[in-house]
Design goal:
This protein is of the alpha+beta class. 52% of the residues lie in helices and 19% in strands.
């Protein structure tokens, strides 16, 4: 029913809540109705009240919100035996409060419902008796107030308290440990279980119900059923233990209630105390036997798992004695080294060492082990065939219960492939670092959180940092101008989503200098191809930005200078290469009319063999590089002239364009 140490906290639907509430109510009613068939005082007090065990188990497993099921069950079962409804509601208050208090204490004291520790048995008994103080006091007070209890107040209170406490001790474990695997174990031994159950009923009935020899002479008989609990524990697990305790406790209570068995006394208080002590001792003894058995089984299972794991593990495992002589190796170790186990037993680990083994590492291992410490490192070892392999080694000392070191436990991992990869990575990283150091543009790695992880020297100079440590862990966003941070963060999110993004934004360096940057960012991925940040290549375009702004601010003046300039000037669109504007000097110098120019592209004034160079130049221009140089041009008359070109990126009537100034240097070039 509830096999974990933590109570249930997962949400449920309304339907499942009411179904579970009904089931708890029915279980409470049925167990309570059976209990009230053997009352000890009046019609409402019995010596074993199993519904409290049902209540505590359900509240512990399913949560406090199922308390209405306990209250409804308590009211219903008392109404069923003819108790007035006002009295039923009063009794239900105590019957609900007691289990709630017990459950609260169990949770606060970190109770483990698997009963694998002696502490948990004591916790259940202590919290049950503490919580049922409230239930017994409330119930007895209600009976007195309603006139149903006019004498034997102490007996009634003791019976109520003892009965409710025993209900928790007897029934709660059965519900807590009930699991499918427990029932499967009983099914395998079903004939034996049936025989044990029948024998327990017969022995319990004979000792407590059919036995007329009451009092001290019959005390010894009370211990006759106890071996049956040990039998149940060893063969049927926790469920068998719990059923045995319930059968014996109910039998003892029933026999006493009909004035039979060894615990019947003329003095009611003495009778209740004797029966209570017997039931508590029986339950405690049963669960102590169970806990010892569970601990032993757990140790056996752990040992088996450990042995199977060591035998089948792909890692090399060996044990040595205090003199470091090998006493055990697993199959993984023999596969790793090529030696048979017989060839290694009794020898020292130096059999795996050779001329290439680092002596300093060997000395470091020995010094560490001599101090009783642990070693975790790498060493170069030799196989039987003489081949070498890099070996990850974890060595720990083994101590006996008295604290004396009796040997060592060692795990070996073949790290050869990883070591080669490590060397390759180191070489690759060294080459990459050299490239990054020489890269004139800023290269930075930014984490998913936007933190600077790596940055080359060009980037450090760009952000005015003296070293990487000065900016590592800094938010890249914190350097971006406040007005551009939202756009920058949107770009970062798009890169984390797997996109390549270009952006332009201003930053303020650590020393207060503002720069405009043009960034090309791509996703930065780990070995599993997961995006863990962005890799950004950024260039400083402050001067270009300033020039563009200056050009835009003086656009009118440039337009005036454009037409009257004595040098040929034109503007052409970068995407289509068509002329957008030409000045008078260009019309006069090249011989094409203005209309002819505007119907042409820049390729039409270049010799055919210069077109590839032209396209390469255009590509450089579109990437943001201003160009200057001497090129060959063709006039309308077919003459080839040498032209000194100065160009600049611009925007013309909404088009990306290049402004070109052409100076004919043909004569000068001939000289």
């Amino acid at each position: 029913m509830c096999s974990s140490t933590a109570y249930e906290t997962t949400p449920h639907t309304k339907e499942s809540y009411w179904v579970r509430t009904l089931a708890i109510t029915v279980a409470y009613f049925m167990s309570g109705y059976v209990g009230l068939q053997m009352p000890a005082v009046g019609s409402s007090v019995t010596l074993v009240w199993l519904p409290t065990g049902v209540a505590v188990a359900c509240l512990y497993c399913f949560g406090y919100r199922y308390w209405p099921a306990i209250s409804i069950g308590a009211v219903s079962v008392n109404l069923a035996v003819g108790t007035a409804w006002q009295t039923c509601f009063g009794i239900a208050v105590g019957n609900t409060a007691g289990p709630l208090i017990t459950t609260y204490l169990l949770r606060r004291l970190q109770f483990n419902p698997r009963f694998e520790r002696h502490r948990d048995i004591a916790l259940l008994a202590i919290t049950a008796h503490a919580g049922m103080l409230v239930a017994a006091s409330c119930g007895t007070a209600v009976l007195v107030y309603s006139g149903l209890l006019k004498s034997d107040f102490i007996k009634a209170w003791l019976c109520w308290w003892a009965g409710d406490s025993m209900g928790v001790i007897a029934a709660t474990p059965l519900l807590l440990v009930a699991a499918q695997r427990e029932f499967d174990g009983i099914k395998i031994r079903l004939p034996e279980f049936a025989g044990w159950f029948l024998l327990t009923v017969v022995v319990t009935g004979g000792v407590f119900v059919l036995n007329d020899n009451v009092g001290e002479p019959a005390w010894a008989l009370a211990f006759v059923p106890l071996p049956l609990i040990a039998w149940a524990t060893l063969r049927f697990g926790a469920i068998g233990t719990s059923i045995g305790i319930i059968l014996i406790s109910v039998g003892a209570a029933y026999g006493t209630s009909i004035e039979a068995g060894p615990f019947y006394r003329q003095t009611a208080t003495q009778q209740v105390l004797l029966l209570w002590v017997y039931m508590v001792v029986t339950a405690t003894l049963g669960w102590l036997i169970a806990s010892l058995h569970f601990a032993q089984m757990r140790a056996v299972n752990i040992q088996k798992v450990l042995e199977d794991g060591l035998r089948d593990a792909s890692l090399g495992v060996l044990l040595t004695d205090a003199a470091r002589k090998i006493t055990y190796v697993n199959e993984g170790f023999t596969r790793l080294t090529g030696y048979d186990a017989k060839e290694l037993l009794g020898r020292g680990c130096e059999v795996l060492q050779g001329e290439k083994t680092d002596p300093a590492t060997v000395l470091r291992i020995r010094a560490c082990l001599d101090r009783g410490g642990h070693f975790d490192g790498e060493i170069l070892n030799y196989r039987k065939d003489g081949s070498t392999f890099w070996n990850g080694v974890l060595i720990s000392p083994i101590f006996d219960p008295g604290g004396e070191r009796v040997g060592f436990f060692c795990i070996k991992i073949n790290n050869s492939a990883h070591k080669e990869i490590e060397f390759a990575i180191q070489r690759s990283e060294a080459r990459l670092r050299t490239i990054l150091d020489l890269e004139p543009e800023c290269v930075a790695i930014i984490s998913r959180e936007g933190l600077i992880l790596e940055m080359n020297p060009a980037g450090l100079a760009m952000v005015e940092a003296d070293s990487l440590m000065q900016v590592r862990g800094t938010l890249w966003e914190s350097l971006v101008d406040q007005g551009h941070r939202k756009k920058f963060n949107e770009m970062h999110s798009q890169v984390l989503a797997g996109e390549n993004r270009n952006s332009v934004f201003p930053i303020m360096g650590l020393k207060g200098t503002t720069r405009w940057l043009e960034s090309h960012a791509v996703p930065y991925r780990d070995d599993d191809d997961r995006v863990i940040g962005q890799l950004a290549v950024t260039r400083d375009i402050t001067e270009r930005k300033r020039a563009a702004e200056d050009l835009k601010a003086s656009e009118v003046r440039y337009r005036e200078l454009f037409e009257d300039n004595p040098h040929a000037m034109w503007v052409y669109e970068l995407d289509t290469l068509r002329f957008l504007a030409v000045n008078n000097a260009a019309v006069e110098h090249y011989g094409f009319s203005r209309e002819e120019f505007l119907a042409m592209t820049i390729k039409d004034i270049r010799p055919l063999d210069d077109v590839p160079v032209l396209l390469e130049n255009i590509s450089s221009v579109t990437s943001g590089l201003d160009k200057a140089g001497v090129w060959r041009h063709r006039t309308k008359g077919g003459n080839i002239i040498q032209v000194e070109i100065t160009s600049h990126l611009t925007e013309f009537d909404g088009h990306r364009a290049e402004l070109v100034l052409a100076n004919d240097v043909t004569d000068r070039r001939r000289l």
